Amino acid sequence: MIKKIVLILFIFIFIFVSPNMFSYQGVLMNSAETINPGNFKLTVFPTMLIGENGGDSIWGVAGRVGFGLSSSIDIEAKGAVFKNFNYLGIDIEYWFYRGRNVNVSAAVGWHMIGSKTGADSSGIDTAIIVSTKPSNKLELYSGLKLSFDSIKNTGQQIDLIHFIPGFEYRITKDTDFLAEFGIALNGESRNYVSFGFAYYFL
Question: Exposure string (b/e) for 52-77, b if CB count within 10 Å is 16 or more?
């Protein structure tokens, strides 16, 4: 009963709260394995955008709620809260390769960003993720994440490219701890660190 109440509240926040309550930084925070069919997944991750050129680092919170559509496909709503940007989106992930100890998936999605500076934008997210399990509880993953944004009323394009190493550790049957480091691969991107928990409603 408690699981259902928490899930309903989180979905309510994602669907009915104004997108301006969320702020920008997309994170990966999952391995190549998709959510089991019929299961829900709730994730919350404190995230730090690392300061550049002597600037301050910025803390925020990212979150996702997802559902397993099949043994290879899941869908997730995603949002993040930071100081100056609002972020809300959705993506679909397809687990297309299952090896003996290597898995590979690809994700594609859409998002919108509400900026407090007035530079609102929207765009497409893509990612490819590779993961492996050195033990039953530990899963290592790495991903390449690309986001392509168009700034409203300007025609200006902003591309964010990150290489992302991370890990996922099974704490209990229903709960994982995850952590990752986003390495910026172009000048428009920022390095980040994200860590937190994923909870599965089986």
Answer: eeeeeebebbbbbbbbbbeebbbbbb
d(CA 24, CA 190): 12
Residue 54 CA from chain centroid, whole number: 27
Q: 73 with 99: CB under 8 angstroms?
A: no
What does pLDDT average to over the chain?
86
Domain extents for the chain? 2-201
CATH, domain range 2-201: 2.40.160.20
| Residues 42-65 pLDDT 10s | 999 999 989 887 778 888 888 999
Give the separation between CA 197 and CA 120, rounded to whole angstroms: 30
User: Rg of the Cα trace of the chain?
Assistant: 16
- The structure's pTM equals 0.83
- Cβ contact 180:166 at 8 Å: yes
